[in-house]
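Marked as duplicate of an earlier ticket. Keeping the data here for the record.
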Amino acid sequence: MAALRAGTPAIPGLLQNLMQGVNPLQMMLNPQIPTSSANINAAQAANQMLQQAGLTISASGQIMQSKKWRRDERRQRELEQRLALALTTSHLTSEALANPLWKELLEAAQPKFTLNDDPQYFEQLISTLHLRLLQSIRALLSSAVCVSVLVDCVRLPPASGSEEPLLRLCVSAAFPAFVNQKYEVQVILLAFRPLVQADNTSEAVAMTIDQVLTDYDLPQDKVTRIVCSGLKQLLDDDDGCVVDKQASHFWHQRIMTCFTHFLESNSTIDELRKSVYQMIFAFVTRPDTLQALNKAAGRIVELPLSEPFPVLAEAVINIKHAIDVVALDGATPHLTEEQWSQLRGVCNASALFRQYGNGLAEGECPTVDGVVPAIKQITHALDKDSLDLGALAGQLKDVVTERLASITDVTHEEFDGTYIQATALNPQLAVLLSEQQLSYARSAIEQELHSRQPPAPSSLSVDALLASVLSSSPDSLPLYSDLLQQAQRLQQVHSKLIPTDMLE
């Protein structure tokens, strides 16, 4: 303190010896001084020790208190860590920081920040952050009761001089975690890496997945399923099965495929599509008519002719009033009222399939227990014809029922009971299952418990489990509200049909 009052800050002994040996300021100002690696390293060490002590060198060569952050200050270290992460995620080496313009930019943006001159410092910092991240992910995975592995095959453009595309596997882990007073599905990216060398592609994919699981100490018995996407196209195989517990991804693709198949195969929709395109081309090929359409719409009309038919249908529905105004002269082809109704129905059906096909509810991650309720909600909406499809509603329902029978029909020859079992174990969604589906779920869960536990308590545990599930009141079912009301009505009717002596 006395030294500070006198205007001469105290200098650590080692720092003072370094400063006497090499003065960094003199080194920068005097080009005649040899800049050997030893001198540069000594200057860097001196600067680092000055910053650590909260000191700096003035223009006159005097040591004084620095206005910059010390090396060990939290804000200095946070900015260094963010800079290190920015470098590694941008695939830049720390050598890029040797450019003095980076130093000027960073210290101009935050005058209290000091950019470390040693490139190895950021390499070590990146390694430390990577190690901490791996440890955190391993801890999360070890605490999870069960984990679903998500594998996506990504094709990248071929490298220069090669015609073969680059293949990468994107491997993620999904598991339930208690967040914000409730369980939520957390998804963590584990790896994005090329296939390992193997005799064939199937073995390469399997070995790559196994390698990732080994890197994170994730045992196979904790993995409930491995959901793969893109492997069938990669392997040119109808099955595409390369690992145990493999399951195909369901969301969006299979539900949306039903709607796409209906649009492509239905003759009424085909006639509607032709009429819509005929009307549109009558507008776009006549500049005066197109100008009148823009005037009636109050804006420049954009018709997405290259987009799928539902997108085009929605754009046409939005300008129906303008089309009606322009078509009053009778010279322009126009849709009938029945065709307009069908077009509105296509738009409504497209919105319904997008909502339930994506499996998303308020931005949450899709889960396997919502697949069967989503299918039921779609078929229920088609039964009520709330989409204004008319006779097309029944035809679309037949397509959905036929193409998704392996999910909902327990008597189907290729039935997959995973989805019904998952729904039965969800307290809010189990009431949406039929008696046949619940009976199957109970039997399947009982068999699974028999294989894991002694046979005596397993039956009782299944009864208690399903009783707890079915007695839980569904307090938040925004996606399936009308379907839930229908299920409750059916339960009331069923209870009235049961004789009193049977209840006793």
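See parent ticket for discussion. The beta strands are 55-57, 63-65, 147-156, 166-179, 182-194, 223-229, 246-248.
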